[in-house]
Every structure is written in structure tokens, then in C-alpha cells.
Amino acid sequence: MKKKSSLLRGLNAIAVAVFCVFAVLVIMITLVSLNAVNAANEKQEEKNEQLRFSNQVMEEVIALQQRLEERNPTGDGHDPDIDSEFKQYILDTARNELGLVMPNEKIFVDISH
């Protein structure tokens, strides 16, 4: 009888240990899944922000094109003031917002800060 009761206690202890290991695994899998979902949400938010920025830039380009058409109703499209302003806007946006550079342009980064 003592052997049976001691065997039963041993089996209970093993069952509790297996349950605890299973619970810990379930919790770990849940945390990893939540982390993956959060990372995906952050990437989607970055894409949304880029899309909002692209839309804003497109609106500004359209506004500049409309200004060009207003200043030059004949449609030859060669108002030097607007052309240079538009080109400068494109260059500034590409450099400052998108991080692009001209071919063979050298970039110096101040690392003293």
C-alpha cells in the first residue's frame, strides 16, 4: 500500500511538472506571437507614414504645377522662375526628406556630437 501511495505521489509530481512546463511554453509562444504582431504593426505604421508623406509631396507638386499653369497660360511651360523653383524643391525634398544624393556627391557626416 505504501508503494502504491508513493508511486501515486511520484506520478502526481510528474504530472504537475509536465503541466508547469506546458504552461510556460504556452506563455512563451504567446509572448513571441505578440512581439511578432507588434513588429508587423510598427512596419505597417511606417509604411502608412511614408504613404502620407508621398501624398503630401504629390499635393505640393500638383500645387506647383497649377501655379506654373497660372503664370504661363499659353502652355509653353518655360517660366524660368517656376522651373528653377520647382527643380530646387525637387532637389531639396530628395536630399532632406528621402536622403538621396547627386551622382559623385560626397557626403560628410559630423560625428563629433
Which short descriptors sum up this protein?
single chain; 113 residues; mainly alpha; 0% strand
Report on this structure.
This protein is an all-alpha fold and 113 residues long. It has one domain (2-96). α1 (2-71) packs antiparallel against α2. The chain has helices at 2-71, 80-96. The protein is rod-shaped and about 105 Å long.
What's the total count of β strands?
0
Name the poorly predicted regions: none
Mean pLDDT reading: 84
- The coarse overall form would be rod-shaped
Beta percentage is: under 5%
Summed up, the helix count is: 2
Backbone structural class: mainly alpha
Count up the domains. Answer: 1
Rg from alpha-carbon coordinates: 32 Å
- Our measurement of the CA-to-CA distance between the termini, rounded to an integer number of angstroms, reads 78 Å
The helix/strand order is HH
Query: For the report, how would you describe the main beta sheet?
Result: none
- How much helicity do the residues have? over 70%
